[in-house]
Design a protein that fits this description.
This protein has 20 helices and eight strands. By secondary structure, the protein is of the alpha/beta class. Helix 3 packs parallel to helix 4.
């Protein structure tokens, strides 16, 4: 039978199955209580990361276990980097991490367990089969479910994550464990914007962020289209009186807002107005596969030159490093060698990969520009402080208002030797990899950070 004939049989069979193959997720979020949403955007707590004159931020890209392993290797190398005149390591000084899809697993687990995560993450996640209990093949037996919403709902994956990593922790518990602050990013596929699991979005829908399961946020961030049905968040419009941050209405109405900030603000306004009763969330990589939207929005929405830092942190700050940990796969497939193809499955995969890859260049450029503008604004603000303000914010004798250096960079497989990079880029985007590939990718994370000129320049000035 021809390819077209085979595909026709599958589509016809799927059409017959659609009536009983609808797949969807039940919302798990609950209405907001009388206390309101508590989730401070200010970066830093009363721990070493908040008390020093450094700001260290990381974003972990998508890419299944490959992404989780690469970011884990970066964390390992940071734990090998001592801090001058201190007993701790650079790992203890990380202020924030933003994660998406596979990278969100590492971000969430490290945010929860801190350096303890380095002792068991490899065994508890990277070497295990996180696809256990999932159907991962598009076939005649699963296409009905695929066309009915997704082959899998999120139940099996969230249960697996809780059993192996998160122990049913909620965001309320997650937010109370100190630095680093962690953003988990998904995609709102109706509004075509990032969905960041934070106070802004949950205030808008009058829902209690503190009761939401961490595992469900990670599963939403990694919900690849077709493989998973969208995660669903229910809005409760009119049931709370917590005001939205003033910047939301301002950014939504301002024609000069950045595209990311303006679009996000308009989506949040729709949430509050009740125009989106059920938010449908999928893999965060669909709109930002670097996972940097959370911090970009946090900075661009600030009405001060130093936010989301406090003025005391901004005066103390001397050096800031922001690294994007990019573990994207290379191009693959042999259908370019023939006049036929790609077939339906390859076409779908190529379309998703194209969507994700096309967003990363623009999002990184926007992030780089935002960080450089922040540096310039902060220096201008610091140099404009009066003597009384300097004293109030903790400036010491000899303080130099211009002494603020930002180091912004990306770590990727392409920064290694070409042969090694090709092997790493060929590692599949799965949540199940053989031990040899896992350890190769972990080692690549360590080596890429160690060789990074941006990292070396930052470390030299400590």
């Amino acid at each position: 039978m021809s390819r077209l004939g085979s595909f026709g049989v599958i589509v016809t069979s799927a059409a017959l199955l659609l009536g009983c193959a609808s797949v969807y997720n039940i919302p798990l979020n609950v209405p907001l209580g009388s206390a309101g949403v508590v989730d401070h955007l200010t970066i830093g707590f009363a721990d070493p990361a908040a008390l020093d004159d450094l700001l260290i931020g990381l974003s972990f890209s998508g890419g299944g276990t490959r992404a989780a392993a690469f970011s884990f290797g970066v964390l390992q190398e940071m734990d090998n980097t001592p801090m001058p005149h201190a007993s701790d390591k650079m790992l203890d000084r990380i202020d924030f991490i933003s994660g998406v899809s596979g990278g969100s697993v590492t971000a969430a687990y490290f945010g929860l367990k801190k350096r303890e995560a380095l002792t068991d993450f490899r065994e508890r996640f990277l070497l295990l089969n996180a696809e256990e209990g999932l159907q991962t093949t598009l076939s005649l037996g699963t296409i009905g479910r695929a066309l009915g919403g997704g082959i899998n709902d999120s139940t099996a994956f969230t249960k697996w994550l809780d059993a192996h990593l998160f122990d049913n922790v909620t965001f309320g518990q997650f937010r109370n464990v100190g630095s680093p602050r962690v953003w988990i990013n998904a995609s709102d596929i109706y509004n075509h914007v990032p969905f960041v699991f934070d106070a802004t979005a949950f205030t808008a829908i009058c829902s209690d962020l503190s009761q939401y399961p961490l595992s469900s946020a990670v599963a939403a961030s990694a919900a690849v289209p077709i493989a998973f049905a969208p995660a669903v968040i229910k809005a409760y419009p009119g049931t709370c009186h917590d005001p939205l941050p003033p910047w939301i209405a301002k950014a939504a109405a301002n024609r000069n807002s950045s595209p990311m900030l303006g679009s996000y603000a308009k989506a949040v306004m729709r949430y509050r107005e009740g125009a989106v009763p059920y938010l449908k969330l999928m893999d965060g990589g669909l709109v930002d596969n670097y996972g940097i939207s959370g911090f970009t929005i946090a900075r661009e929405s600030s009405d001060t030159a130093y936010g989301p830092l406090t003025p005391q942190q901004a005066v103390k700050l001397r050096r800031a490093m922001f690294l994007v940990i990019d573990s994207k796969a290379g191009i693959s497939g042999d259908w370019v060698k023939t006049v036929q193809g790609p077939d339906g499955v390859d076409m779908l995969k190529a379309a998703i990969d194209t969507t994700m890859d096309s967003s990363v260049g623009a999002s990184y450029s926007a992030f780089d520009r935002t960080m450089k503008d922040w540096q310039a604004s902060m220096i201008k603000w610091r140099c404009g402080l009066s003597g009384a303000e300097r004293a109030r914010y903790g400036a010491k004798p000899g303080w130099d208002c211009k002494n603020v250096q930002f180091f912004i960079g990306r770590l990727g497989f392409d920064q290694l030797e070409p042969e090694r990079a090709a092997v790493l880029e060929a590692v599949p985007t799965r949540f199940q990899l053989p031990q040899g590939q896992v350890d190769d990718v972990i080692a690549a994370g360590r080596d890429t950070l160690r060789a990074s000129p941006i990292f070396q320049a930052f470390a030299r000035g400590l």
